[in-house]
């Protein structure tokens, strides 16, 4: 009796596709999604009681692994004090202080409940503050499912985007220009044409929604210069990379290579909630003061800054602020990625990988891709076989080749060694 299969059938009768977020349905790889019964540390157990080493970690938030004792305690205490008040609490201030402490670009922050909401609100703020409508996003970057962002490139720079979802009227995306990631020439051309009409450019600095693709330093430097010169705001969507690739997030990595580098607005989520629904956006005081109730840009939320979610996020950030944390996490992630690389090489499978902090990506390609078009040259059938081979061996990676992977501080050397050994067995069948 397969309990995962039974639950999936029950779910499909009631919930579209049986899931509450599409990627969970395993459509890209086929097969039955694993229904999680419980999780602890680096593992979860599915409805059949099978243990999996979890490299998704709720798509990033579980940087301490599941059920870290300090986080569980903070959440339990918060629950006893009340679930939600619709009135301010001290922990919202503490969480804001903790975020601002690590991100020099963020002087003020507004807490919301999801990354989608944070990115959507940051764009509204950018438009409100600049008085402009147009924006640039990059192909392969995901910023949540707000209407204006569900868009693919038109034909050439002269045309703005087309909706990628039914239900999004073309008028709603008419101000969104979609460009190729890491393409400096195209970026320059777009700014020459539209620079003075742009409210903002939104980017995932390390794109985790096309597996793992870094914006190159020259590309980022040019983007920053063009935004500054044309009065457009640079919005860093760090929902995935924030407090995940480094304590100072991806922006700190670019600041190491580009003197004085800062984004104008930063969008956060995932890790800052530690697994609870919590996200944020922030930036300089002068910009953030355009928000209601101080300014004319409206934004609100019944559950924003929820007391249980802020307790969870705060406890998580406190743990990862230990100066030993990121070097340790980075070393674990490197061991995994180097191990996978060695296993692929030994079995003659083309393989390219990259990683930063507790985030990694690998491709069954001879070289790292620089943009979405190159990512999509990956062999999806081969990836599907790798995915299922690993799943059968109790290793749970993202069920789609355009998703990143995540290592937590709960992943032991032994977990990683088991993962590499399993991968080598599967690579052997792929070569
Ligand atoms: C996950 C993600 C979002 C959306 O966050 P949700 O909480 O799922 O709405 C936005 N941007 C990036 C970069 C993300 O990875």
Automatic annotation (TrEMBL):
Q: Main localization of the protein?
A: cytoplasm
Query: Where does the source fall among the domains of life?
Result: Bacteria
- N6-(pyridoxal phosphate)lysine-modified residues are 270
Cofactor(s) required for function per UniProt = pyridoxal 5'-phosphate
Q: Name one GO cellular component term.
A: cytoplasm
- GO BP of this protein: protoporphyrinogen IX biosynthetic process
Assigned EC number:
5.4.3.8
- What is catalyzed by this enzyme? (S)-4-amino-5-oxopentanoate = 5-aminolevulinate
Q: From the UniProt record, which GO molecular function terms apply?
A: glutamate-1-semialdehyde 2,1-aminomutase activity; pyridoxal phosphate binding; transaminase activity
Q: Cite the InterPro entries for this sequence.
A: 4pyrrol_synth_GluAld_NH2Trfase, Aminotrans_3, PyrdxlP-dep_Trfase, PyrdxlP-dep_Trfase_major, PyrdxlP-dep_Trfase_small
State where the protein is found.
Answer: Cytoplasm
Q: Name one Pfam family in it.
A: Aminotran_3
Under which main EC class is this enzyme filed? isomerase
Q: Which keywords does UniProt give here? A: Cytoplasm, Isomerase, Porphyrin biosynthesis, Pyridoxal phosphate
Keyword tRNA processing listed? The answer is no
- State the family it belongs to: Belongs to the class-III pyridoxal-phosphate-dependent aminotransferase family. HemL subfamily.
Protein name from the UniProt record: Glutamate-1-semialdehyde 2,1-aminomutase
